[in-house]
Amino acid sequence: EAQVTQNPRYLITVTGKKLTVTCSQNMNHEYMSWYRQDPGLGLRQIYYSMNVEVTDKGDVPEGYKVSRKEKRNFPLILESPSPNQTSLYFCASSPGTMTNEQFFGPGTRLTVL
Amino acid sequence: GENVEQHPSTLSVQEGDSAVIKCTYSDSASNYFPWYKQELGKRPQLIIDIRSNVGEKKDQRIAVTLNKTAKHFSLHITETQPEDSAVYFCAASKNNAGNMLTFGGGTRLMVKP
User: Fold this and answer.
1) Closest CA to B112 of B10, B27, B15
2) What is the DSSP string of chain A?
3) How far does A36 lie from chain B, in Å, by closest CA?
4) Which residues in chain A have Cβ-Cβ distances shorter than 8 Å to B97?
5) Is the pLDDT of residue B97 over 60?
């Protein structure tokens, strides 16, 4: 089944404790992105990647890191999480050529205490 | 950067009525405008999109119109049904691959039976 997966789905952590949210897609898509969703603010892009080893900042990159060592994986790293990073996070992938549709993962709800 | 504003933030209609959601964008270089639907607790899914070389696009009960001069685009849903109840997001991109998406704040549509 073609899909984007994220883990964990739910995470409660404390300020300053490094964490990684994994994202994987099995559709051989070139493009991958991370978004955060907050009430009234819609979805804001954190980082995106157009190919292996190619990443760039989105609109709200501060406090986040990403890597794209393999085509299928695009982990989101929070080196020192803070309460203002409490949010719902979505990973998405897109073939980027014939279609621009972004396929979203199921979301990760993160709470930073 | 791009700024996308979406109105209204909430919309309540009677089943069978039409619903219209409007978005404006700031960057005249934007050329791709998708709409995503997010049901409660689910991931966003693409429902329709339009490119800047087209003024209108229809898919059954949904349609999108684009006015490049005024820099606004709208989603029209006719004959609304309870299953249309969801949050709808518009977005804009000036990247042909549609991966640098800027989303509007979302519209919560409630269709009353």
Assistant:
1) B15
2) ---EEEE-SEEEE-TT--EEEEEEESS--SEEEEEEEETTTEEEEEEEEEETTEEEE-S--TT-EE--SSTTB--EEESS--GGG-EEEEEEEE--SS--PPEE---EEEEE-
3) 11
4) 31, 50, 94, 96-97, 100
5) no
Question: Considering only CA atoms, which of A84, A74, A9 is closest in space to residue A47?
Answer: A74
pLDDT band at B103 (very low <50, low <70, confident <90, very high): very high
Q: Do A100 and B34 touch (CB under 8 A)?
A: yes
Tokens in use for A101?
A: 């549709």
Distance CA A59, CA A65 (A): 13
Nearest chain B Cα distance for residue A17, angstroms = 27
Is the CB of residue B72 less than 8 Å from the CB of residue B23? yes
Amino acid present at B86: A
Residues B38-88 have pLDDT tens digits of 999 999 999 999 988 889 999 999 999 999 999 999 999 999 999 999 999
Distance of CA B35 to the CA centre of its chain: 4
Whether A15 contacts A112, CB under 8 Å:
yes
The confidence score (pLDDT) of residue B99 equals 66
Chain A residues with beta carbon closer than 8 angstroms to that of B98? 94, 96, 100-102
> Tokens at residue B89, please?
């997001």
